[in-house]
Amino acid sequence: MMIWKPNVTVAAVIEQHGKYLLVEEEPEPGTGLFLNQPAGHLDPGESILQGAIRETLEETAYTFVPEFLLGIYQWHSQRVDMTYLRFAFVGRVTGHDPERALDHGIARAEWFDLQEIERRIDRHRSPLVMRCIQDHRAGKRYPLEVLTHYDA
């Protein structure tokens, strides 16, 4: 019997002065640049919150402080035939290290206004990019206490 498992990912939705922090990344060589929230796969042994903090730092060089859970999103990518379970967080940045090297595949991290993000919707890494921004703008917020990291 085959056991199906989704890919667990974490993402940070960070808005500051009307702009959102996004990364331009090339997921596979030759595919061109796509927009995404700072996001990535959960590493073994880390909590969901730790993963969101780590991924944001690695992809943007910004220190991220999660304040709320924005939502949990399930999406199946037909292109790679893979299902993702994304935990997205709303929070703020408290520092930036412009000398820090960004993760492999990340061209740059930049602040984009809503109009820029909407104009480039054809270059979003997934439909979750816009959905998370829409949910953020709609005021969706859940307390971090809904998450429990139990490591006996």
Helix content: 10-25%
Q: Would you tell me the overall average pLDDT? A: 95
Oligomer: single chain
- Estimate the strand proportion: 35-45%
Largest sheet properties: 4 strands, mixed
Separation, N- and C-terminal Cα atoms: 29 Å
Topology order in helix (H) and strand (E) letters: EEEEEHEEEHH
**What is the CATH superfamily classification?**
Nucleoside Triphosphate Pyrophosphohydrolase
- Count of DSSP-assigned helices: 3
Low-confidence stretches: none
Walk across the major sheet and give the strand order. Answer: 5-1-7-6
Number of domains: 1
Query: Structural class, from secondary structure content?
Result: alpha+beta
By CATH reckoning, the class would read: Alpha Beta
CATH fold title = Nucleoside Triphosphate Pyrophosphohydrolase
Radius of gyration: 15 Å
Please tell me the CATH architecture by its name.
Alpha-Beta Complex
